[in-house]
Design goal:
Strand 12, helix 9 and strand 13 form a beta-alpha-beta unit. The strands form 2 sheets. The chain has a 7-stranded mixed beta sheet with strand order 6-5-4-3-2-1-14. Strands 7-8-9-10-11-12-13 form a 7-stranded mixed beta sheet. Helices cover about 30% and strands about 25% of the residues. The chain is globular, with a radius of gyration of 17 Å. By secondary structure, the chain is an alpha/beta fold. It has one domain: Ribonuclease Z/Hydroxyacylglutathione hydrolase-like (Metallo-beta-lactamase, Chain A, 4-Layer Sandwich), CATH 3.60.15. Bound molecules: zinc ion (2 copies). One zinc ion binds next to helix 2.
C-alpha cells in the first residue's frame, strides 16, 4: 500500500491511497477539476479511483466531492451525521455507504477503521487504513482539536501517519487573525499545533514508524521549515530513522510506501 497527499491545507485536502488492486480517495476538498489535474500529475487515471471517503463536512474536505462522485460514478463512504450536514453541498449522490465511527469495515482489499476526534464539525472521522494480509498501517489524523486517549490507541504501532501540524502557537497568537478565530483554532475543537503534533509523536514513537507526513499546515500561522525542524528535533532525540515529509497545498507529495 502507498499513499500520496494530493493537497493539504485550509484551501483543500485530498489523499490518494493505493492498494494492490485499487485506489481510493480520502476527502475531495479541491474543485473536481483540480483533483483530476492532481491525479494526472501523479500518473493515476481517474477511472482507477473506486471510492471516495469523507472525513467531515468542512468545505476544504468536500468541495469537489459531488463532482468527482458523479463523474466517476463511485460510492461515497461517509458517516450519517456528516452526510446530513454535507448533503446540501454534495448535490445528488446515488451510491451512499454509511459507516459509523468505531466500527471497522472492509472495502476491496482495504480494512478501514474510522474513529472519532474532537473538531468543530458534527462528527469528524479520522481513518486507520491497512491492507488485508499486511501489518503496515496508515493513519490520517487531521482536523483534530486535541489528541484523546482513543487517538493515542489508534496510532500505536502504525507505520505511517499523516499528522496535522497546523500552526506555530506564537505565530498564531501574534498573527493577523481576529481573536474569535485564534480562539477557535487553538481550542479543543480546533487544530493541532506543531508542538502538540510533536508531543503526540513522542508518546507513540517506535522502531516501526517509517513515515511522518505533516499536513494541514496553516499558510498564515506556520511555515513548513518551522514544522519540519520541530519534528526533526523529536526524531533526533530518539535517534529514529523515519522519513519526514511536509504536505503542501500547491502540489502532491511523492508516493510514500506505507
Ligand atoms: Zn480541514
Ligand atoms: Zn475541519
Amino acid at each position: 500500500m502507498k499513499v500520496c497527499v494530493l493537497a493539504s491545507g485550509s484551501k483543500g485536502n485530498s489523499i490518494l491511497v493505493s492498494g494492490v488492486h485499487s485506489n481510493i480517495l480520502i476527502d475531495a476538498g479541491l474543485s473536481g477539476k483540480k483533483i483530476l489535474e492532481r491525479l494526472h500529475r501523479v500518473n493515476v487515471s481517474a477511472d482507477s479511483i473506486t471510492a471516495l471517503f469523507i472525513s467531515h463536512e468542512h468545505s476544504d474536505h468536500i468541495r469537489g466531492a459531488g463532482t468527482i462522485i458523479r463523474k466517476q460514478d463511485i460510492p461515497l463512504f461517509i458517516n450519517q451525521l456528516t452526510f446530513q450536514a454535507a448533503n446540501y453541498k454534495l448535490g445528488k449522490i446515488e451510491k451512499v455507504k454509511i459507516f459509523e465511527n468505531g466500527y471497522p469495515f472492509t472495502f476491496n482489499e482495504f480494512l478501514i477503521e474510522p474513529f472519532s476526534v474532537p473538531h468543530d464539525s458534527v462528527d469528524n472521522s479520522c481513518f486507520r487504513i491497512s491492507e488485508k494480509g499486511y501489518n503496515n498501517k496508515l493513519v490520517i489524523l487531521t482536523d483534530i482539536g486535541y489528541p484523546t486517549r482513543l487517538v493515542e490507541e489508534k496510532i500505536k504501532n502504525i507505520s505511517t501517519i499523516i499528522l496535522e501540524s497546523n500552526h506555530d502557537y506564537d505565530k498564531l497568537i501574534n498573527g493577523p487573525y481576529d481573536w474569535d478565530l485564534k480562539q477557535r483554532i487553538k481550542s479543543k475543537n480546533g487544530h493541532l499545533s506543531n508542538s502538540q503534533a510533536c508531543d503526540l509523536i513522542r508518546k507513540i514513537i517506535h522502531k516501526g514508524l517509517k513515515n511522518i507526513i505533516l499536513a494541514h499546515l496553516s499558510e498564515e500561522n506556520n511555515e513548513p521549515e518551522i514544522a519540519r525542524s520541530e519534528m526533526m528535533k523529536v526524531l533526533q532525540e530518539y535517534t529514529l530513522q523515519c522519513n519526514l515529509y511536509i504536505a503542501s497545498p500547491h502540489h502532491p507529495t511523492e508516493w510514500i510506501d506505507i
